[in-house]
Amino acid sequence: MDDVQKVTVSAIGQSIAEGEFDNVATLLMNLENAGIACNLITYNAAISAYEKAGGEQGMANARALLKDMNAMVFLHSMK
Fold this sequence. Notes:
Mean pLDDT: 87
Distance between the termini: 19 Å
Largest sheet: none
């Protein structure tokens, strides 16, 4: 995991602690915009944040990330 991913996971953790779940999407988007792919640790942190956010939207976001993560794992297994 590179430094940017480490910082992102840490920031996601801080967002969870502060109840600022909307920051998670921004952090993930920043990774994507920088051309850095999420890894399993990043996905796990984000899914955990959305699960803690709860509600219909939080769970929908968690399911969407889980689907993305599963696709990433599948693509890597095809190499």
